[in-house]
C-alpha cells in the first residue's frame, strides 16, 4: 500500500492522461442524453459514469496504480456521502407526510390567493417560489401551477414569454433553496458540504438575485396593459375539496425552520419534520390517510399503514382538477433512489480519478490557470455552463465539475460550500436556458413557450452566475476553511 501511495504522489501524470476519462465521460453522456432524453437519469447516465470509472482505471493501470488502491478510494468516497444519502431518504419521507398532512396544499392555496392583475408578474414569481420550495421541484411547479399561470397571463393579455420567464424564475429559486430538491442535496454531496450550511450560504447570492428579479418584473408589469381578471377559483375549489386548509399547518414547516436556525443537525430536523407531518395528517386529513390505504374507516392499523406508505413509496392524491393531480403526488423514500444511484456512481468515477492522481493533476492545472480566487470561481462557472450545453443535463453539470473542482477549492483553503453554491448558481439554474438540455426541452414543452421566447425574461436564471462571480470578484462572503489573520 505504501508503494502505491508513493507512485500516486510522485508520478507526473500527463494532463491529457488525466483529462482523457473526463473527455470520454462527457462525450458518452452527451450522446446518452441525446438518445434517452429525460429518461437518461433512470439508469443509463449512471452506467455511463461507471464506464467513465473503467476508463480512468485503465489509465491508472498504465501508471501502476493497483486495483486495491482504486477500490479503497471508491469506498472512502462513498463513505463520505453517507449523511447526504440518509438526508435524501428523509427528504423523500418528509415530502410524503407534508403532502398527506395538507402542508404542501396549504402553501399552494395561500400562494394562489395573493394573485392580482396589477401585480401578476411579481406575484407569479412569489407563487412559483413558494410552491417550488414546498415541493422541491421546478418541473412539478411549472407543469401544474405554471401552466395555470400561463393560461391566466394569456387571458389578461400578457406576452407568454414574459409569463414563462416569471414562472421559471420563481420555480428555480425554490428548486435551489428547498431542502426537498434533489439538486440542492446533490451539490453539497459532490462538494463535501453540509446541506443546511449549503442552503444558508447559497442564500447570500440567491436572495439578492431573486430580489432584483422581482423588482425588474414590477417595472415590466407596470409597463404592460392588462385586461380581464385572474380567475383561480377552480383550482382553489379543487384544493378545498380534497384537503382541509388551515393556517395551523404552517406550524410544521415553522418547526423545521426553527430547528435549522438553531443549527440542529439536518437528519434530526428532517426526522422531526417528517414525524410532525405524519401527526398533523392524522389530525387534519384523516380522510386522506384512509383513502391512501383503501380502507373503509380509519383504524390504528389503517392510519399506521397510510402514514408509513406516504413516507416510503409513491403517494398520489386525486382531485377534481386534473391539472393538480401531478402536483399532489410524492415518491417517498423510494422516489429518491434515482438521485442516490447517481451519487453512488459518481463516487465510483470520482474515487478512481482520485486514486490514479487525475483529480490532483487537473486541480493543479486549474490552479495554475486560475491565478486568483475569482479565476477559480470563473472556471467553475464556465465548466458548469459548458456541461449544460454539451452533456445537456442539469445533474451532470453539478456532478462532473463538483468532483473535478473539490480538490482545487480545498487547495486554495476555501470551504466546500463555496463550490456547492457555485455549482447551483451556475449549473442548476442555467440548464433551462439551453433548448437541447433536458430542462430546457422539458420546460419549453410543458409551458408551450419556446426557450428563445422566454430566455430574456428568465432573469433569475441568467443573473445567478453573474451574482456568484460578483461575490467572488469583490471577495464578499468567501468562506475559508480556517480563520486566517
Describe the 3D structure.
The chain has helices at 2-10, 15-36, 44-62, 67-80, 82-100, 103-113, 120-135, 138-155, 160-177, 182-191, 195-222, 233-242, 251-261, 266-284, 286-293, 300-312, 322-325, 337-355, 358-369, 373-390, 396-411, 416-428, 438-447, 451-454, 459-473; strands spanning 315-316, 329-330. The chain is an all-alpha fold and 485 residues long. It has two domains: 2-81 and 336-473, no CATH class; 84-335, no CATH class. Strands 1-2 form a two-stranded antiparallel ribbon.
Main structural class: mainly alpha
Strand content: under 5%
Number of E strands: 2
Along the chain, the helix and strand elements come as: HHHHHHHHHHHHHHHHEHEHHHHHHHH
Order of strands across the main sheet: 1-2
Rg over CA atoms, rounded to whole Å, is 23 Å
The main sheet comes to: 2 strands, antiparallel
The number of distinct structural domains comes to 2
Kindly report the average pLDDT value.
84
Uncertain runs: 1-10
Q: Outline, from the CA principal axes?
A: globular
User: What percentage of residues falls in helices of 4 or more residues?
Assistant: over 70%
Number of helices: 25
For the termini, the CA-CA separation is 38 Å
Amino acid at each position: 500500500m505504501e508503494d502505491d501511495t508513493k507512485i500516486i504522489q510522485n508520478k507526473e501524470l500527463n494532463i491529457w492522461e488525466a483529462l482523457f476519462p473526463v473527455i470520454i465521460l462527457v462525450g458518452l453522456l452527451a450522446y446518452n442524453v441525446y438518445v434517452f432524453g429525460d429518461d437518461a437519469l433512470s439508469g443509463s447516465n449512471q452506467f455511463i459514469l461507471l464506464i467513465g470509472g473503467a476508463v480512468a482505471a485503465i489509465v491508472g493501470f498504465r501508471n501502476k496504480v493497483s486495483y486495491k488502491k482504486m477500490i479503497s478510494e471508491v469506498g472512502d468516497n462513498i463513505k463520505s456521502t453517507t449523511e447526504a444519502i440518509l438526508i435524501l431518504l428523509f427528504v423523500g419521507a418528509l415530502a410524503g407526510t407534508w403532502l398527506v398532512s395538507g402542508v404542501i396544499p396549504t402553501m399552494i392555496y395561500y400562494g394562489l390567493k395573493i394573485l392580482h392583475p396589477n401585480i401578476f408578474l411579481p406575484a407569479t414569481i412569489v407563487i412559483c417560489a413558494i410552491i417550488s420550495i414546498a415541493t422541491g421541484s421546478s418541473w412539478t411547479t411549472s407543469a401544474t401551477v405554471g401552466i395555470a399561470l400561463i393560461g391566466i397571463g394569456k387571458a389578461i393579455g400578457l406576452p407568454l414569454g414574459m409569463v414563462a420567464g416569471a414562472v421559471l424564475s420563481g420555480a428555480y429559486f425554490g428548486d435551489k433553496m428547498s431542502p426537498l430538491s434533489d439538486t440542492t442535496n446533490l451539490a453539497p454531496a459532490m462538494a463535501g458540504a453540509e446541506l443546511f450550511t449549503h442552503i444558508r450560504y447559497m442564500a447570500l447570492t440567491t436572495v439578492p438575485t431573486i430580489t432584483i428579479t422581482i423588482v425588474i418584473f414590477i417595472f415590466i408589469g407596470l409597463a404592460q396593459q392588462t385586461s380581464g381578471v385572474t380567475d383561480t377559483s377552480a383550482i382553489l375549489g379543487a384544493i378545498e375539496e380534497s384537503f382541509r386548509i388551515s393556517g395551523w399547518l404552517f406550524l410544521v414547516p415553522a418547526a423545521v425552520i426553527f430547528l435549522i436556525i438553531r443549527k440542529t443537525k439536518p437528519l434530526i430536523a428532517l426526522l422531526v419534520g417528517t414525524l410532525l407531518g405524519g401527526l398533523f395528517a392524522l389530525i387534519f386529513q384523516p380522510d386522506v390517510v384512509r383513502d391512501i390505504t383503501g380502507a373503509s374507516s380509519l383504524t390504528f392499523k389503517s392510519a399506521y399503514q397510510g402514514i408509513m406508505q406516504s413516507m416510503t413509496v409513491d403517494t398520489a392524491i386525486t382531485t377534481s382538477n386534473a391539472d393538480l393531480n401531478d402536483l399532489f403526488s410524492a415518491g417517498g423514500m423510494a422516489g429518491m433512489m434515482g438521485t442516490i444511484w447517481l451519487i453512488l456512481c459518481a463516487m465510483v468515477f470520482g474515487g478512481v480519478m482520485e486514486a490514479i492522481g487525475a483529480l490532483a493533476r487537473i486541480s493543479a492545472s486549474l490552479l495554475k490557470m486560475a491565478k486568483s480566487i475569482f479565476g477559480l470561481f470563473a472556471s467553475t462557472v464556465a465548466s458548469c455552463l459548458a456541461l449544460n450545453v454539451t452533456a445537456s443535463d442539469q445533474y451532470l453539470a453539478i456532478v462532473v465539475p463538483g468532483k473535478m473542482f473539490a480538490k482545487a477549492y480545498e487547495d486554495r483553503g476555501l470551504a466546500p460550500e463555496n463550490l456547492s453554491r457555485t455549482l447551483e448558481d451556475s449549473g442548476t439554474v442555467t440548464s433551462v436556458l439551453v433548448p437541447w438540455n433536458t430542462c430546457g426541452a422539458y420546460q419549453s414543452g410543458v409551458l408551450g413557450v419556446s426557450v428563445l421566447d422566454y430566455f430574456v425574461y428568465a432573469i433569475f436564471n441568467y443573473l445567478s452566475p453573474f451574482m456568484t462571480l460578483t461575490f467572488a470578484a469583490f471577495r464578499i462572503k468567501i468562506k475559508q476553511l480556517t480563520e486566517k489573520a
